TrEMBL record:
Domain of life: Bacteria
Alphabetic keyword roster: Signal
Native source species: Flammeovirga pacifica
Record's signal peptide: 1-22
Protein's name in the database: Outer membrane protein beta-barrel domain-containing protein
Length: 179
């Protein structure tokens, strides 16, 4: 798991350095705020769950405009943690809804976005017991539903690359790609 996180972090930093060198200075602003980047954004990052100190990665792609300031994204995640008796991992699949508050807050810069998010989906949880617990069956189960909430921000270097952070039922930090 440690090597996976290091590889993902290195890949994100390498991607960031390549995209920053191709910075776009085409600023688009509106007089009343509300300029946000949503649909067409791929958000990839590392996360920490506040339950059991789980760590992992997440990705979502905003593909649908639901209203003036709302988007919907398909989302996947993987989180894992280790206890003294077993390794636990959860693969999640769901949707992430975002409400962009730029217009309400009067944010006119195309560099910053502020949002609230909500997640809903299901998770496939797997438990593999360490030696000494052979009589305990390892296995997987599917949770009927998971949910999460958070607030976050994005900083866009240009239309193609930016950074994002979310805090709520977990914490995430990552890179935003404009596709």
């Amino acid at each position: 798991m440690k090597n996976l996180i290091q590889t993902l972090l290195f890949t994100m930093l390498l991607s960031l350095s390549g995209f920053v060198s191709a910075q776009d200075n085409n600023d688009k602003q509106t007089n009343n705020g509300g300029h946000y980047k949503g649909v067409g954004q791929l958000n990839v990052g590392l996360g920490v769950g506040f339950n059991y100190g789980s760590a992992g990665f997440m990705a979502d792609y905003e593909f649908l405009q639901l209203g003036q300031d709302f988007t919907m994204a398909a989302a996947v995640s993987y989180y894992g943690y280790d206890t003294y008796y077993a390794k636990h991992s959860t693969f999640g699949v769901g949707v992430r809804f975002r409400w962009y508050a730029d217009r309400v807050l009067g944010i006119t810069s195309n560099k910053w976005d502020v949002f609230a998010s909500g997640d809903v989906g299901f998770g496939i949880h797997s438990t593999n017991y360490h030696s000494g617990y052979e009589n305990t069956p390892s296995g997987s189960n599917v949770s009927p539903i998971y949910w999460g909430v958070g607030i976050g921000t994005k900083y866009h270097f240009n239309d193609k690359i930016g950074l994002h952070a979310i805090i709520g039922t977990g914490a995430q930090i990552g890179i935003t790609f404009g596709l």
